[in-house]
Amino acid sequence: MTATSQVPELLRIEHALKQHLLATLPESVGWSVRCLVRQGMLIVLVQHPVSSPVDQRQVFGVLEAGLRRSPDLGLLGGRSPDLHAIRLYLRQAGQREPYGFYRFAWGAATPPPPPSSIPSSGLAASPATTFLAATAATTGAAHAADPATDADLEPDADRGADPTNRFLATRPPQVSAETNAASFPLGLPAAATNSHTPSRTMVNTVVDVEVSESRAVRQWSLASHPAARFGVAAGIAAGLMFLVGGGYVLSRPCVVGRCVPLESAQSYALDAAGKLEEGNTAQDVVSAYEALTEASYLLNRIPSWSGYYDTAQTLLTAYTVDIQKLERVVEAQRLAMDAAVQSQNPPHPITVWREIQQTWQGAIAQLAKVPADSPIYDLAQRKRAEYESNLAQIDQRIRREVEAQEWITVARKTAQTAEARQGVATTLGTWQQTRATWQTVIDYLKKIPTGTMAHAEGQQLLELYQPQLLTAEERVRQEEAGSQRFSLAAAAAAAAQDAERRDQWNEAAAQWQQALVEVQQIQDGSTAYDQAQPLISSYQMALNNAQNNVQVSTVMQAALTDMAAICGTNPRLCQAERAGDRIRVRLTEAYERALVAATGATPVSTARLDQMNPMLRAIATISETHTIPAALYEANGTLFGIYDPRIGGYVAELE
Question: Which residue has the higher pLDDT, 3 or 261?
Fold first, then answer.
């Protein structure tokens, strides 16, 4: 059996997988990737902070895709000809056991099945037993795992652990002491360098102890030598225990010879210090954090019986304090990345913006905990100012979304009022009120800020409510036009009636004609339309009467002209004027005196009639010519008679 983790291909694979995760999953900032080759399998462990949300299927898919594209995997296969399968593990920081597991055959062309979660009980509860079971299935071994071997694979800081389980083990819990100590321990050995050493990987050597019992053991007779057989069995067991225990102790790192994990840990610490001295960027802090985490992991592998154990524990305590200081910035960076990713492709609902707001607040809170004596304090303050600026923008986004949602709410409520008013509007005043209400709704929706989630909803409501406003505006125009025409018609009718009283029938006819045109042009559907319908017939009748009177007036005027000719001027014999549908002719006193002088004082006599006969015939002729009755009166106003052209003579009264 072979186990390796320090070959260059593994280091490059670890780096490539970490970069691939960062490029595909921005939330993977601060995650660590470890690789190990054991028993023909490449084992990959990804560890992430507890607070990181993880989609197992997505993470395993990204890892498999990265591995299948990796040229170093082929080089690794050349170095390890028995490499045939790949195992992927997911684990939370601070936990000893992974919670997610996925495996696939190297070079397999079939799509990956869904990732499985490691159960919390049974044989699969332990990463070690899971590994053994999978290995047995891969290699075709039919025997069950030896209990002693299983126990060796369980994590134990006092006696070390199997390479597989050491690989899955997390770094020790972080020290909760105050972090006002020096950022990094001084006095690192001069031999430490910034380059990766062989102890950079999970294990430097693996010594596999295989124990088997000889099948050529002498057979004892159970019937005759039971005690002897028991003694032999006990001796064999004791010898085996001694061999296994001694071999295991000597196989642990830093027991014999130099302590490569300690040297590598110090090298990592030096790398971390260099990162913090080189630049003051968040990525430098993340790199320093990862280096110290690797250093802590290596120190934690040194067993308690090693001569380097005390030194390792001292450094481990100091590194843990340093990790705690850096962890706040790393966590802040992760939260900032989450917030930035979640903010992409706006607009978002208010609930999403509030989640982003809380994420930025969490990042700022982490930076606020960085003590003033920390070497990354200035960086933390710069990032804090940057994050607070981002938070202010998110706060503004939330205010805009709240404001936009308020406009949506008030617009909907006002639209309900407009719909209610529109349902009962019947007059110009009520339609004007309805139009004003719909206009208010439109004005509210136009105030919704662009770039908000509610803006799209506002545009949809505009498309819904704009036709309602147009309908209300059209009804207002109809009502206004109808009301105006109704008023004009009423005024024309009043003027026509006044002209009739003055016997100005031409004027009356013109006014009645105007009144009729106005009521006929009132649009159907308006309130004035129903009011105007009864007036059409009455106005038409009045117009007809006026037009008839216009004709009569024309004839009458001609008759009066003819009458004026027979009445004369000097002396004037009579006076003619219109009296309704007839001409009124009244004799003058001068004519009466002439008659008395010629015929005597008798009012009625043959001589008087003979004297009046020319005038009577002239009046009759004019009456017949114009077909207008003519009433003749004495100078004192007494009716002499009425000439009726229909019968051709004078009568006392028209029938």
Answer: 261
Q: Are 410 and 369 in contact (CB under 8 A)?
A: no
Residue type at position 381: Q
* H or E element, residue 4: strand 3-4
Q: Which of 117-126, 394-403, 552-561, 621-630 has the lowest mean pLDDT?
A: 117-126
The residues near 312 (Cβ < 8 Å, ≥ 6 apart) are 254, 259, 261, 262, 265, 299, 300, 302, 306
Q: How far apart are CA 655 and CA 650, in angstroms?
A: 12
CA dihedral 489, 491, 497, 498 (to 10 degrees): -160
Residue 49 has pLDDT above 70, yes or no: yes
Letter string b/e over residues 468-497, b meaning 16 or more CB atoms within 10 A of that residue's CB: bbeebbebbebbebbbebbebbeebbebbe
- Which pair of tokens denotes residue 348? 């978002």
Q: How do 630-633 and 639-644 pair as beta strands?
A: antiparallel
Contact 6, 76 (CB under 8 A): no
Question: In angstroms, rounded to a whole number, what is the distance separating the alpha carbons of residues 628 and 631?
Answer: 10
Would strands 582-587 and 630-633 be described as parallel, antiparallel, or unpaired? parallel
Is the Cβ–Cβ distance between 266 and 254 less than 8 Å? no
pLDDT tens-digit series, residues 536-584? 999 999 999 998 888 888 888 899 999 999 898 778 889 999 888 889 9
Q: What are the DSSP calls for 542-566, one per residue? A: HHHHHHHHHHHHHHHHHHHHHHHHH
Whole-number Cα distances in Å, 40 to 43, 166, 167, 208, 535: 10, 18, 16, 14, 108
Q: Quickly state the pLDDT bin for 244 (edges 50, 70, 90).
A: very low
First to last CA, the chain: 148
Question: What is the mean pLDDT of the segment spanning 457-466?
Answer: 94
Nearest CA to 473 out of 442, 500, 438, 441 is that of 438
Nearest to 50 by CA among 94, 116, 97: 94
Which pLDDT value is given to residue 30?
Answer: 82
**Who contacts 411 (Cβ-Cβ below 8 Å, separation ≥6)?**
441, 444, 445, 458, 461, 465
DSSP secondary structure letter of residue 115 = P
Contact between residue 4 and residue 199 where contact means Cβ atoms under 8 Å apart: no
Q: Is residue 102 within 8 Å of 80, Cβ to Cβ?
A: no
Q: Tell me the pLDDT of the chain averaged across its residues.
A: 76
Provide, for the chain, the percentages of residues in helix, strand and coil under a 3-state DSSP scheme, each rounded to the nearest 5. Answer: 60, 10, 30
| pLDDT for the residue 252 | 65
> 628 or 140, which is more confident?
628
* Residue 362 confidence class, pLDDT cut points 50, 70, 90: very high
d(CA 382, CA 388): 10
pLDDT at 20 (0 to 100): 87
Q: Tokens 């593994």 identify what position?
A: 10
Task: Name every residue whose Cβ is closer than 8 Å to that of residue 94 and which is 6 or more positions away in sequence.
Answer: 50, 170, 173
pLDDT at 282: 80
Residue 51, pLDDT score: 72
Residue closest to 321 by CA, chosen among 434, 426, 182, 220: 182
Chain-centroid distance of CA 30 in Å reads 32
Asked if residue 404 lies in contact with residue 454, where contact means CB atoms within 8 angstroms, the answer is yes
Distance (Å, whole) CA 93 – CA 52: 10
